[in-house]
Amino acid sequence: MLTPDYLFTRRRAPTRPMILIPQSLTELSGPVYGHESVRSLDNDLTRQHEGEPIGERIIVNGSVMDESGRGIPNTLVEVWQANAAGRYIHVLDQHPAPLDPNFSGAGRTITGANGSYTFTTIRPGAYPVIGLNNVWRPAHIHVSLFGPSFLSRLVTQIYFEGDPLLRYDSIYNTAPDVSKHAMIAKFDMANTQAEWAIAYRFDIVLRGRASVYFEEPHAH
Ligand SMILES: [Fe+2]
Q: Per-residue pLDDT tens for 62-98?
């Protein structure tokens, strides 16, 4: 979507209307990548290495729902994020913040019968957008959903309640107000675990007014 304040969209956004290509049964009924190979610990990003990652341990709980609040089961939920210092393990991320040998920053899970999911991770750090003058991304976790067919992939970002960088973030500000609200994980005292981790809640509504904002490719 062309959003003049979000500079990258000037180069990347399509200038012509989208052409819808009819989808055949082969595409809609093809195998969905990855469902079978998800292991039970894949949703705990703090236990993928010998030691524990540095950072503030958090639990993110939520549900994937349709517009009437019904949970959507068997949805592949994948997350990826920077470490506590705001650094990704990626060749394109070379900004001067340390990597964490105990943190890869990727996880996945499948929603349960009632549409619920949970991740344990560390709170990601803010990071600078290299090449822009003092532009920082707020703390965020990227999230992708795979629905019942390979073509039904949706991608968005989880932000955190109270982050002062949100008001400066051009990606966040691309979303309409109602969707902005839906992209913010709410602090969730009830699910905080004593002497272990604080918790956030992030529900994902797929259609309708309360729907979360789904981004186009290439967002950082
Ligand atoms: Fe990011």
A: 999 998 999 999 899 999 999 999 999 988 888 899 9
Classify domain 28-205 at the CATH topology level.
Protocatechuate 3,4-Dioxygenase, subunit A (2.60.130)
Q: Considering 87, 123, 137, 200, which one is annotated as catalytic?
A: 137
Distance 141 CA to ligand 1 centre (A): 7
Ligand 1 centroid – CA 72 distance (Å): 26
Q: What is the DSSP string of 30-73?
A: SPPTTGGG--GGGGBTTSSSSSPPSS-EEEEEEEEE-TTS-B--
Q: Compute the distance from residue 84 Cα to the ligand 1 centre, in Å.
A: 12
Q: How far is the CA of 81 from the centre of ligand 1 (A)?
A: 6
β-bridge partners, 117: 62
CA distances in angstroms from 201 to 44, 60, 64, 95, listed in the order given: 16, 6, 12, 30
- Give per-residue pLDDT as tens, 141-162: 999 998 766 667 889 999 999 9
Q: Which pTM does this prediction carry?
A: 0.85
Q: What gap in Å lies between CA 51 and CA 49, rounded to an integer? A: 6
Domain ranges of the chain: 28-205
